[in-house]
């Protein structure tokens, strides 16, 4: 049998059902993988070895008794801004280094109630808005090239899933923080429709832009995980009703004949030439599934990115104003973002909020008659880790967030569901596609992503395992 740490959650569940593996064996395999690899990548903040082994033993008994739950015995990790009862939740910050919540976040509770086994709390940029060089816990390194970043802010989740430390992890996404590390680490990640996943108990950054969701090694696993964590929550008034059908049922759906839009304007305008070539190749693969790719225009989406940042800055200041006095204890990049926030005026913030429905309508009109929109999942390769990271666009270097967030922030503003899947490689590093859906239509994204992964092997590539930087 393959190392259980290399199996997806779906494969593990099949193995448990067949009696060829147990949750205890899977958890031990994940713990061994963490021990073998984490000194190189620094994905784990808090390891829960004894606790996870005890939970796995309980899952063993449930499988023997025939009472297994949807995620029974599946190891998972949580970005360390997700509250966990009795387990420290640091936010990646010295300010919360020893904070121990008294209750689980709702999504953490749903994963545990479904039988998931929490193995580790995973690294994050400080408060989900700092930089790659975390002042308190150190940088998380990309498993494909330890000199490079995983992206963020769900840095540990991206590295941990890519390496097989856990098959499932939770990330959060305010301007791309699920999708950027998923793209940089060669895994699958979904930012579902705004409100699809409850955020009570998750440290906030920007309440009208924040999302939480799955980071996995396959589309099937992302759908499985979203089925568990999605649904209304009385503690979060922004949450949506439960979907009519399970998301997992959409994986494997026929996509032949679907029309998928692409915007050759702002969303594709600034890419490294090698990334652009990989993107075109992946679109040819997509067309090979019988999908029709049609050109559309999003003429003001450059302004959507600006409006999104105005909202993030203003709401971040509102939530983190109490940390301004401790700014010297913050990461340099986190401090600079918070320091810039007061320069967004109330008029700017309100103007951005008024513009949000304008961009939502523009996107809906462009996607009319189309099942989804496709974009590159990234515009440049993961940058090298440095206090002030830059991205290489071929003819120039730009601040890394300018490149990384170009195709992500607009869809936090619109609240659209967006799925990132691996789509190729450039120089030994993964590249990716992003599928953007209509509001509340994650099912079509899972059908498209699932069909793409059934027809290609990009998502099966794994980084080399190494225990040293």
Kindly describe this structure.
This protein is of the alpha/beta class and 469 residues long. The chain has one domain: Alpha-Beta Complex (Amidase signature (AS) enzymes), CATH 3.90.1300.10. The chain contains 15 helices and 15 strands. The protein has helices at residues 9-18, 23-41, 49-65, 106-113, 155-163, 179-185, 219-229, 266-269, 273-287, 301-320, 332-340, 346-366, 400-404, 409-414, 442-455; strands at 44-47, 75-79, 117-122, 141-142, 145-149, 168-173, 188-191, 211-216, 259-263, 292-296, 372-376, 390-392, 397-399, 418-426, 429-437. Strands 1-3-2-6-8-7-14-15-11-9-10 form an 11-stranded mixed beta sheet, with helices on both faces. Strand 2 (75-79), helix 4 and strand 3 (117-122) form a beta-alpha-beta unit. It is globular, with a radius of gyration of 20 Å. The mean pLDDT is 95.
Helix/strand order: HHEHEHEEEHEHEEHEHHEHHHEEEHHEEH
Structural class: alpha/beta
Number of domains: 1
- For this structure, what is the CATH homologous superfamily? Amidase signature (AS) domain
What is the residue-averaged pLDDT? 95
Straight-line N-to-C gap: 29 Å
Helix content: 25-40%
Strand content: 15-25%
List keywords for this structure.
alpha/beta, 469 residues, two-stranded antiparallel sheet, globular, Amidase signature (AS) enzymes
Describe the structure in brief.
The protein has 15 helices and 15 strands. The chain is α/β, with parallel strands linked by helices. It has a single domain (4-460), classed as Amidase signature (AS) domain (Amidase signature (AS) enzymes), CATH 3.90.1300.10.
């Amino acid at each position: 049998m393959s190392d259980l740490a290399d199996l997806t959650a779906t494969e593990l569940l099949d193995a448990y059902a067949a009696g060829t593996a147990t949750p205890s064996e899977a958890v031990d395999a994940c713990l061994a993988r963490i021990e073998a690899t984490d000194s190189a990548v620094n994905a784990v903040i808090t390891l829960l070895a004894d606790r996870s082994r005890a939970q796995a033993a309980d899952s063993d008994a449930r499988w023997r008794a025939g009472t297994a739950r949807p995620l029974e015995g599946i190891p998972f990790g949580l970005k360390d801004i997700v509250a966990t009862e009795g387990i420290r939740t640091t936010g990646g910050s010295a300010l919360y280094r020893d904070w121990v919540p008294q209750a689980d976040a709702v999504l953490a509770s749903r994963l545990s109630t479904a039988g998931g086994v929490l193995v580790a709390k995973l690294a994050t940029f400080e408060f989900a808005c700092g930089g790659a060089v975390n002042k308190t816990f150190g940088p998380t390194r990309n498993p494909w090239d330890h000199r490079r970043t995983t992206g963020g802010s769900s840095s540990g989740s991206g590295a941990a899933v890519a390496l097989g430390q856990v098959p499932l992890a939770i990330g959060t996404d305010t301007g791309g923080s699920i999708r950027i590390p998923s793209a940089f680490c060669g895994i699958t990640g979904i930012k579902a429709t705004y409100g699809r996943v409850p955020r009570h108990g998750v440290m906030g950054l920007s309440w009208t832009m924040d999302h939480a969701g799955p980071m996995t090694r396959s589309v099937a696993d992302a759908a499985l995980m979203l089925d568990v964590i999605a649904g209304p929550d009385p503690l979060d008034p922004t949450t949506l009703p439960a979907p009519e059908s399970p998301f997992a049922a959409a994986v494997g759906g026929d996509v032949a004949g679907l029309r998928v839009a692409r915007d050759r304007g702002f969303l594709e305008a600034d890419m490294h030439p090698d990334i652009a070539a990989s993107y075109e190749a992946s679109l040819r693969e997509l067309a090979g599934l019988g999908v029709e790719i049609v050109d559309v225009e999003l003429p003001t989406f450059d302004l959507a990115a600006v409006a999104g940042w105005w909202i993030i800055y203003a709401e971040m200041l509102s939530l983190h104003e109490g940390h301004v006095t401790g700014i010297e204890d913050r990461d340099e990049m986190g401090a600079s973002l918070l320091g810039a926030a007061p320069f967004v005026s109330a008029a700017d913030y309100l103007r951005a909020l008024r513009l949000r429905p304008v961009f939502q309508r523009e996107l809906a009109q462009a996607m009319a008659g189309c099942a989804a929109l496709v974009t590159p999942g990234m515009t440049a390769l993961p940058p090298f880790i440095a206090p002030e990271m830059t991205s290489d666009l071929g003819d120039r270097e730009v601040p890394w967030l300018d490149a990384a967030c170009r195709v992500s922030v607009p869809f936090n503003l619109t609240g659209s569901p967006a799925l990132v899947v691996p789509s190729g490689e450039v120089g030994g590093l993964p590249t990716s596609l992003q599928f953007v859906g209509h509001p509340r239509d994650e099912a079509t994204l899972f059908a498209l992503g699932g069909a793409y992964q059934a027809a290609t092997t990009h998502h099966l590539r794994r980084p080399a395992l190494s225990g040293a930087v």
